[in-house]
Amino acid sequence: MAVTAGYSEAYERALRLAAQAHQRQNRKASDVPYITHLVHVSVILLRYGFPTEVAVAGLLHDVVEDQDVDLAQVEEAFGARVAEVVAALSERKVDSQGQKRPWQVRKREGMEQVGQASLEAVAVKAADALHNLRCMALDARQEGPRIWQRFSRGPEFLLDYYRQVLGIARERLPDHPLVDELADALEELARTVDEVGVDER
Predict the structure, then answer these.
(1) DSSP code of 49?
(2) CA distance 188 to 182
(3) What distance in Å separates the CA atoms of residue 130 and residue 95, rounded to the nearest whole number?
(4) Which residues of 42-57 are buried (b: 16+ CB within 10 A; e: fewer)?
(5) Which of 77, 116, 178, 189 shows the smallest number of beta carbons within 10 Å?
(6) 114 to each of 61, 91, 161, 183, how far by Cα in Å?
(7) Verdict on whether the full-model pTM lies above 0.90
(8) Are 61 and 47 in contact (CB under 8 A)?
């Protein structure tokens, strides 16, 4: 039986970069450090047997989009495969004049990028969506409908967006258990929205 090392220097370096880059960022309208999301995404990928490079991409999938980290820096430190995944999952949030681009335009472009990206990028997107959905359902059960005030769109918009993510994941990773769990998480959130309702204020 082959012995695989438990420690990965690449993962450690990626974890340090992600922790430093996101150190002042929390999850939406909460005091939960953002790094918890990135670590959980990478853990999901590792649990489903994806290689360390994909888990590293999971740790780093928001550093270019949300923080002052250049894609070339990611490629130099972690290689072209990781950089390709990060690029595929990075939205262009502002236009050439520095103005924030519309949410729906960014999400549509993001879906197009993921649909044309590598299977590794689709897996990271699925793991990202899975963690977001589970967290939203947990927070909704604990806090009630006021949690939707954290987001720029209400729960129906969010559910529709994640249905699109699930559709791409089903097409690109058919029969993968990660996709089955993502579908279950989406159903759970839909049930939770029905149970807790929506704060219309």
Answers:
(1) T
(2) 10
(3) 29
(4) bebbbeeebebbbbbb
(5) 116
(6) 12, 11, 13, 17
(7) yes
(8) no
CATH (residue range 9-91+99-196): 1.10.3210.10
* Residue located via tokens 């070339």: 72
CA-based nearest residue to 114, from 165, 174, 70, 162:
165
The residue whose two tokens read 């780093």 is: 60
Where are the chain's structural domains?
9-91+99-196
Residue 28 CA to residue 183 CA, distance in Å, equals 23
The whole-angstrom separation of Cα 187 and Cα 54 is 26
Length of the chain: 201
Dump pLDDT digits (tens) for 68-116: 899 999 999 999 999 999 999 998 877 777 788 887 888 889 999 999 9
